[in-house]
Amino acid sequence: ITPFVNDGGHVLIIPGQVIDVKSYNDLSQSLGIGRWGDLIDESRNIATILFDHPIYKEVFDKNVTNFEYPKVAQFYEYNDPLAAALLLDGGDAFLIQNGAISVFTASLAQENSNFVNSPLIVPTLYNIAKNSLPTPTLYYSIGSENQIAIPVIIDQDEVLRLRDLQEYIPLQQRFAQQVLITTTDQPATAANYFVLSKTDTLGLLSYNYNRSENSTIYTPQSQLTAINFYKTIPELFNKIREDNSVTTYWKWFIIFAMLFLLLEMTFLKFLK
């Protein structure tokens, strides 16, 4: 198992109802994960989902509280609580993920647990498998960390390259059956890039600019001091009508101007 993990493989460990704890701990030690403890012959509910854990981060729209949690009849103590994704009543771990290793602390046999009949079983196993290999997407964002698994076997001194108008050598890690490419700021131009190995074209990757700059940000209403707000359409029309209505003062000005003009002409006529 260790060479498989070192080559980028992911392992899911599901114990039987009766296990040899020493052999399991020898395996755990070789993999650098937690230690198995005693068998707890006590029925417990799977009571806590760590919603921020990578396995469940995108499964739930919100933190649910009325979930019908499955249960186990017995389980093994396991010393690696910080990597837990599911917890039993009392805080003991039921599902743990430590890097490339995922561990159930109890048998999933029907006589020991009803977890396989729970709605949790599908997203749990699916996301464990999904996280084991970065799945390709339609495009990748420039400026973000992108991990892309290229299923190819290359020589030890060989590197993969990205080419458009220019050529880039991205950060990459070689495994037995794949090469894991990591890109951030390079390439810096949105385009389609060929993945090249020597003279062979292995695939095509699309890069786009980060679309967060197109997010609309609205100014809070409390900061719009020079703008009037109206609750109804009639209220708005009444205000517009008032603002556009012309006062009658101009009529009086014209009347007085005409009177003064007549008086002036009269005075001029009699003074002659």
Describe this structure in words.
- This protein is of the alpha+beta class.
- Helices cover 23% and strands 28% of the residues.
- The protein has helices at 2-6, 21-31, 121-131, 233-244, 249-271, and strands spanning 11-13, 35-40, 44-49, 71-72, 75-79, 84-88, 93-98, 101-104, 140-141, 146-150, 160-163, 167-168, 171-174, 179-183, 191-197, 200-208.
- The strands form four sheets. It has a six-stranded mixed beta sheet, with no helix packed on it. Strands 9-16-15-11-12 form a five-stranded mixed beta sheet, with no helix packed on it.
- A hairpin with a 4-residue loop joins strand 13 and strand 14 (179-183).
- The longest helix is centred in the last third of the chain and has 23 residues, at 249-271.
- It is elongated, with a radius of gyration of 36 Å.
Helical fraction equals 10-25%
The Cα radius of gyration reads 36 Å
Strand order of the largest sheet: 1-8-7-6-3-4
Tell me the series of helices and strands, N- to C-terminal.
Answer: HEHEEEEEEEHEEEEEEEEHH
Mean pLDDT: 81
Give the structure's gist in a few sentences.
With 272 residues, the chain is an alpha+beta fold. The protein has helices spanning 2-6, 21-31, 121-131, 233-244, 249-271, and strands at 11-13, 35-40, 44-49, 71-72, 75-79, 84-88, 93-98, 101-104, 140-141, 146-150, 160-163, 167-168, 171-174, 179-183, 191-197, 200-208.
Topology:
Layout (H helix, E strand, L loop, with lengths): L1 H5 L4 E3 L7 H11 L3 E6 L3 E6 L21 E2 L2 E5 L4 E5 L4 E6 L2 E4 L16 H11 L8 E2 L4 E5 L9 E4 L3 E2 L2 E4 L4 E5 L7 E7 L2 E9 L24 H12 L4 H23 L1
Parallel strand pairs: 1-8, 9-16
Antiparallel strand pairs: 2-5, 3-4, 3-6, 6-7, 7-8, 10-14, 11-12, 11-15, 13-14, 15-16
